[in-house]
Amino acid sequence: MEINLKAHRCPTAQVLMNRILEAFVASDEPELVISTIEPSLHRNTLGRIAGLELPLVVNEVHTRQISDRDLLSWQEQFDEDDFGDVRDIVCIKVIKTNKMMDEVNDPRLIRVAN
Fold first, then answer.
1. How many alpha carbons lie under 13 Å from residue 103 in its C-beta half-sphere?
2. SS3 assignment, position 83
3. Which of 55, 72, 88, 108 could form a disulfide with 63 if both were Cys (CB 3.0 to 4.6 A apart)?
4. Peptide bond preceding 11: is omega within 30 degrees of 0, i.e. cis?
């Protein structure tokens, strides 16, 4: 599943991300990629997953430069004030995980016998 948040900034980007994560958890899709210009959305995604104890993990994060094609597609829907100060798009890849297995393999929860 790939979702492009285009030039949405917070708080709208946050609200959309919350809805997207809920839909992703309920779906049969194994992975989700959210593309955004909002620099805080990676941190917010991690917080949302942890706060709601969702069976998800951020698997990969990378950036790419905003292209002329991106700019053209945003001009009709957004003001340049929304994206004029941003140079990169952040792509956040989220995958489903087996929460039980994560807990079993969490090194903080492994007890070492003396």
1. 6
2. helix
3. 88
4. yes
